[in-house]
């Protein structure tokens, strides 16, 4: 109806369930949304990146849960850290096997992100971690900065090798 009524319009679906969904316990309205355009063409990396989005969204959900559940937050963050650490090691090994020229710089980028995530873990342990800090790190540092920056630099290696 917004499109039909003209430009610069917003309409709310009175019949929709968005209010019920947004109000559901343990579920944040804020999500990182995966798009196929984010695929690099290497199945293992693409699968791990998708899982990273799922785990990041789980952390966003855990951080936004009211009342707070410190144990759930800690467990969700620990699972994210474990996945990120494994992903970085496997990605670096694969990039080494294909002879990626910027591997050293890429590995340094991974080390920096792991240090940041460990700082987030310490802040959570000490009760200083804010929801906005988590979202900023995930959206800006991990997705926009690393995946759309450093990772995008190696996409031609796989896309040129028969990838998407």
Spatial extent as radius of gyration: 19 Å
Secondary structure: number of strands: 0
Cα end-to-end separation: 36 Å
Low-confidence parts: none
- Outline the biggest β-sheet: none
Question: Which features would summarize this protein structure in a list?
Answer:
single chain, 164 residues, mainly alpha, 7 helices, flat
Task: Provide an overview of this structure.
This protein has 164 residues and is mainly α. It has seven helices and no strands. It has helices at residues 2-5, 18-23, 43-64, 70-97, 103-125, 131-151, 155-159. Helix 3 runs antiparallel to helix 4, helix 3 packs antiparallel against helix 6 (131-151) and helix 4 (70-97) runs antiparallel to helix 5. The protein is flat, with a radius of gyration of 19 Å. The two termini are 36 Å apart. The model has no long low-confidence stretch (mean pLDDT 87).
Short recap of the structure:
This protein has helices spanning 2-5, 18-23, 43-64, 70-97, 103-125, 131-151, 155-159. It is mostly helical. The chain is flat, with a radius of gyration of 19 Å.
């Amino acid at each position: 109806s917004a499109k039909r009524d003209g430009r610069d319009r917003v309409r709310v679906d009175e019949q929709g369930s968005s209010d019920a969904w947004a109000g559901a316990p343990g579920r944040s309205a804020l999500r990182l949304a995966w798009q196929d355009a984010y695929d690099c063409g290497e199945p293992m990396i693409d699968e791990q990146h998708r899982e990273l989005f799922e785990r990041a969204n789980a952390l966003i959900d855990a951080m936004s849960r009211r009342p707070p559940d410190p144990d759930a937050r800690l467990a969700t963050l620990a699972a994210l850290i474990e996945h990120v650490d494994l992903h970085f090691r496997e990605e670096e090994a694969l990039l080494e096997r294909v002879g990626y020229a910027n591997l050293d710089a890429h590995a340094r980028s991974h080390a920096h992100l792991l240090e940041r995530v460990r700082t987030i873990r310490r802040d959570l342990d000490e009760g200083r971690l804010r929801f906005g800090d988590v979202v900023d790190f995930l959206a800006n540092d991990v997705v926009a900065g690393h995946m759309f920056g450093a990772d995008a630099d190696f996409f031609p290696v796989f896309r040129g090798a028969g990838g998407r």
